[in-house]
Specification:
Length: 720
Amino acid sequence: MIWNGEEILKINVLDFEKSFSLAKYVSQQHLINEEVANKIIIKVLDIWENVDPTTKDIWMDLIESAGFYPYLLRIVESSTQLDITSEIRTSYHSSNNLGNITFHKEQKKLAGLIADEQNLIVSAPTSFGKSLLIQEIIALDRYDNILIIQPTLALINETRISLKRFSDKYNIIVNTSQILGEKNIFILTAERVLEFEGLPRINYCILDEFYKLSSLRDDERSDVLNITMRKVLKFNPVFYFIGPNIDQIPEGFQEKYNAQFYKTNYSLVNTEVIQVNLEYQTTGVRKRAKEKEKKLFELLNNNRDEQSIVYVSSPQRAYTLANKYYAYLLEEGFLKETQYLPVCEWIEENLSEEWGFNELIKNHIGVHSGIIPKHLVHSMIEYFNEGKLEVLFCTSTIIEGVNTSAKNVFIFDNKKGPSNLDFFDFSNIKGRAGRMLKHYTGRVFIFDSIPEREDFVLDIPFHDQKIINDEILINLDREEVHAQHIDKYYELNDYDEDLLKVIKRNAVSVEGQKEIVRKLIIQLNTNPELVIWDNFPNVKQLQFLIQLAWEHLLKPTETTRPMTKNKLPVTIWKHSTKEIHTLIREEKNYLEGRHFNWDEQRILDTAIENVFRENRHWISYKVPKWLNVVDSLQKIVCQKEGLDITGDYSFFASYLENEGVDERLSLLIDMGVPSSVIRKISYIIPRDLMNQELIQFVKSIRKDNVSSLLEYEVNKLKQL
């Protein structure tokens, strides 16, 4: 028989003749195009029950030759069904350090390089199993201090939970206030690495989503990540950088750091790309948008026995579309029996019984975005992975290291925020379809054209310096600076030495910080009370500080809407003095006075969304960062101006960042415990407990100890 790709994709049954013929074809392809051969093997695994039994031994040999050992072990009832050489090879691919884990061929190669302490930069598909090798590194038990850098705080807790098995040997640190043990695993963002006073010598560094080093991805955190990595690499650690879809790394990086760039497309999951046929029956943007939505809803409903992820461009789009899907199921009579998960009770007690988000969860629909609280984000992934949610409506936050995937991915929008989705992000979203040992084939439904393919050549500004911002440049040593940047380097460093140390450490706008220093000096000579304060600021002090930060620390590319410079101090004041119930009620009243044509549900949902957005982006992230920057500068300026006292903004910064929770308990926030829980249990926590003792005490708290605890809150404590 003569085979082609389309025929193979359509196969559902392999009789003896077809099976033997296809196996022969695959054997030939292995010599010509291994990737094509592997895809066919995965297709055969997908229909394994319909493969002629007398040919299965041939296919098992091909599965082994492809290195698909996890699948090979799955389809044999016991190792005695393997011949002795296959048994030896399968045993060889078992992890030497992790019990009951068998690697595929490419993982085993990397595990060998890891054991040899080779520095690795690995670009591999999402379904490759790169994160499993993090556990292999730790299980080697060779390194006293292992640093894992994650792009966001939301991912820190997910990583911590996956590594709890090592807590008997390692002290797991997610917060800069924790006390070091003899052996430590640090799971931190780049910002927290720079903030960590007394960070010990790092023996092994793992950088997740290493493409975020690039200055070309328009990520406001790339400068901080570059400064952090440059600092960490000074320790000369062994390192493992991981991410997807990188085609090249900068010239000279491998040689300088004795690293190997390991790029592979090897995957144990096939991806079937389906272009959704939208034959519009109407004209006009709104009518066609409704047609597009209906097509999505029909596809989702037709595939409800398989979990799905729907990608859209923004948090508001994700929530709105999820609600429209629920309305479609309701109208068509397709709703299933509702469920009442523990999180539903928490939402009713802490937010509102009427919030539409809760109704979605009860009907097996989830929303994942960067504006909802971190513990809710984690719960959405947890429930999805447990099969309690059929569909997850997501934004680009699903790309970044989140440990989930689905049988089906629907790329509904071709935007990421206001920008067009490029090929790199498209590939990352597509990679969420299918998961090793769960789905042999993942399906990707595309509603717009696929972005034009372009190679992603990674730039690393602190190394190649092709595009380098002042904040990175000023943190380099003179001998590291390339010739074309020397004049700028000297210009940046022509400044007071004590202030320069602080400016470098802050890792934000150099010129902006210098301008803040100038304005602080003026105020200290005219209105010193605007600068010198501690605990909580008054209205004028807060307005002055926010004006300084807004005008001099925002990047030109940062999006601030709908926040404004004048609105932000008022917003901070509200969030720092009022309960979330009150904030939601006030925002609801405000919206009712502006949008007379909105119904009650839309007003409430928008009010909660607005309060969440303010809190996640401004109150718990951006503003505390600004407070710490200005605080560090005013302390030095006050000293240099000969003043006996300085301000101290650290309490207020911590208060905002940790939702009003006592700083000694802020560790629990980073570990995924909602602030509502901490407020309920804080009175029974002995004040002298710190670090591991604190965690163990809190972990043991049950409903019998605090009757007001909800099941959801008890579960969060158990996850510590």
